[in-house]
Specification:
- Among the domains are: 91 residues, no CATH class; 121 residues, Band 7 domain (Tetrahydropterin Synthase, Chain A), CATH 3.30.479.
- The protein contains 9 helices and 11 strands.
- The protein is an alpha+beta fold and 377 residues long.
- The strands form 4 sheets. It has a 4-stranded mixed β-sheet, covered by helices on one side. Strands 3-2-5 form a 3-stranded antiparallel β-sheet, covered by helices on one side. It has a two-stranded antiparallel ribbon with strand order 1-4.
Amino acid sequence: MSSSKQRGKIRDDSPLATLRGLLGGSGEGPTLGSLWYVGAAAALLYVSLGSFTSIEPGQVAVRINNITGGSDTVTQPGWLVKIPFGVHSVSILDAAPQTFTMKAHSDLDPLNVRELTVRASDGSNFHFQDTKIIFQIRGDEAAGVIGDAGPGAGFLEWMRPYARAILRDEFGRESTISVSNPASFGEATERAKARFNELLGPHGLLVTQIVTPRPQFNDEYEKLIEERNALGNQNEVIKSNLAAAQTSRERKLAEVDRDQNRAIQEKRTELESALATAVTDQADTTREVDTYRIAKLGEGQAGLSAAERQAEELKGQLEANLRRRTAEIDAFRTQPIERVMERLGERLSGVKIAIQPWSDDATPSRVQLEDVAGRTR
């Protein structure tokens, strides 16, 4: 009995029993206390759900502190914690690339407007059937986007006031001929893109690409463009043929140079071999000539020496004979006439003298002597 009372006392002193007592419930059947539990659970669920915000991929969130006025930007997908009861407010923006299209016959919505028509610098008109401008929010500048365009999709309205004016200005600088040139056309697109980012950048928007088809003209001009393109294609074919011909020419010149270089190299090798042989032969000939010259010089020197000795000997003999003859002549001069006649007789010994007078000259004035040898004296 005492234990049972004790258990009842403990049960009556529990927090749940105290709460029931405060609410006046008896613990049997649905009472105000049970309704309070349900309300508390609902409030807890509301607070729990209101404290988290889900950020999907391609979205950016801006959490604003309504008490301090501060804000922070979250670009990573996941759960974002916020304080409920109006302390924090979260705005989620679509940061995925958006496409602004200009191809309809009238304006349909902020991202679909009528097609773009342009007046060229030479006064002619052309149009683009489908122009696309791809832009998106700069994720880290989402707070500025909300400040300028408001929460939600208000930033989409920023493209319409600028797109037509900027594209008309930039493409309107080109003439009809230049705008149909892909190079000039691309330059105009880049200029327009730079102007878009210059004007929309401060508002947190970024233009990433401008896609435009070939500009369309009237039928007559389109026909002229086709003819020009055909001529351009022919020109490209001619250039290609010229390039191929140039390549073939260079190849043939290279082959000719190769053959000529090979022939020159072979001829040079042949001439160098012949030159080496000639140099060797010249050296041999020079050596033989030097040997022959040395030998002949030796022989000549020896013959000269012998001739000089012989000349000296002959000179001595001649001088001796001269002295002897001179002595004989000198001695003969001092001889008497009888001795002279005797010597003359010795010299004329064996000589026959034939004297025959001329028939017409009875008194000869000249006598001719002839020896046996037939010499005339």
